[in-house]
Amino acid sequence: MEPTTKQQNSAGPDLSQYPNIDNGLEGIVAFSSHKSFIDGAKGELIYAGYNIEVLAENATFEEVCFLLWYERLPNSDELNQLNQLLTSQREVPDTIYTYLKGTSTKAEPMSVLRTATSMLADTDIDALDNSPEANLRKSIRLTAKMPTIIAAYDRIRNGQEAVAPLNEGSTSYNFLYMLNGERPGKHAERVLDLCLVTHAEHGMNASTFTARAVASTMSDLHSAVTAAIGSLKGPLHGGANTAVMNMLKGLDRDADIVEFVKNKLANKEKIMGFGHRVYKTFDPRASLLRVMARDLAKEVDMQYLYEWSETILKIMKEEKNIDPNVDFFSATVYYSMGIMPDLYTAIFAMARISGWSAHYIEQMGNNRLIRPRQLYMGAKNLEWVPVEKR
Question: Fewer CB within 10 Å, N side or C side of the chain?
Fold first, then answer.
């Protein structure tokens, strides 16, 4: 439909009056935080004072949760207490199992997780209590219950009975047990634990910003986390690791990877898992997962996946001068562990709940409603035209 004369004559605002518009809020500092720090030029990531490399080598996921919530590491008694609380809160209400059994077996795991997380508020006695103590209790419950939801739905959709959570073991150990129906080995537990540590927190990414925006309205934690899950679900955020693995799975074992990548670039197609809004060098989390991907792929006779990844990495650096992000190698790690691609983002959420809830608590401690402005680009003062004359 052609615009009317009036619309054609109604030019937008003079953009010279607005020199500081930043699409996507790039470069805008909206919050102060004690939760994490990123130096994109150096490729540095810090959680509450500790470099990610130090945490990856020494910390458990549970210690990282405590660190993000309290901004310090726990002593042994505090860690034992947190582990006991997490273990005691793993089971989910019967209404959740009823939903998981009744929903479509073709549903996206992230969609199911989003709905089930929202449902948890219905039976949480602290649901509408936004005191710091209640928010911490809810954070622990959500961190404990998310793995149960993800594992239960995966088994149900595959025609299997859900496995009840254990009253022992780490988050990683229990999740792998519920997912596979058998107790995992120490190596598998450690690999998944390391993945959870590297995915736990990452500054003001899209899903964390979403959580804080919801928190700023004084809405409840379940609402903020549900919204964050919806944000993480997108392929430009957490969904990228699934896209990476689907790309690799779609290739024949004898495929010419160099030709494949160059053809995609020539056709202006995006190679998922590369580039980052903040990092201008190698994502430090990708460096950690790169080593795991190499060792795991070799262990399960899928070394070709790692070799493909290294070839793609080399071409992308030569052709586009961009480095991989955390999603690129995490795809190979999860696939080598026998986890299907459409669960990857849900596992990402299982880790990031620690960061989301930490930011929610921080936002509530010094809240101001998030309300950015927009630049209106449309026409103004149009004349009304009756419907019969349009």
Answer: N
| pLDDT at res. 20 | 64
**Annotated catalytic, 276?**
yes
Give the tens place of pLDDT for each residue, 150-169.
999 999 999 999 999 999 99
d(CA 112, CA 78): 33
pLDDT reported for residue 183: 94
Q: How far is CA 147 from CA 15, 87, 103, 180, 241, in A?
A: 48, 11, 18, 13, 18
Rg (CA), the chain: 23
From 276, 283, 323, 359, active-site residue: 276
CA atoms of 227 and 65, how far apart (whole Å): 20
Which pTM does this prediction carry? 0.87
Q: pLDDT at position 376, please?
A: 84
Task: Write down the catalytic residue from 199, 202, 327, 359.
Answer: 327
What's the rounded Cα separation, in Å, for the pair 225 and 139? 10
The answer to whether the CB of 359 falls within 8 A of the CB of 211 is yes
CA distance 130 to 133: 8
Residue segments in the chain with a per-residue pLDDT below the cut of 70: 1-24, 26-27, 276-277, 279
Give the CA diameter of the chain.
Answer: 77
Q: Look up 327 and say whether it is catalytic.
A: yes
Token pair for residue 298? 């070799």
Q: Which amino acid is at 20?
A: N
Domains of the chain, CATH where assigned: 36-232+352-365 (1.10.580.10), 240-336 (1.10.230.10)
Residue pair 228/210 in contact by the 8 Å Cβ criterion: yes
Residues 242-292 have pLDDT tens digits of: 888 888 888 888 888 899 999 989 998 888 888 766 767 787 888 888 888
What are phi and psi for residue 35, nearest 5 degrees? -85, -45
8 Å CB contact between 165 and 97: no
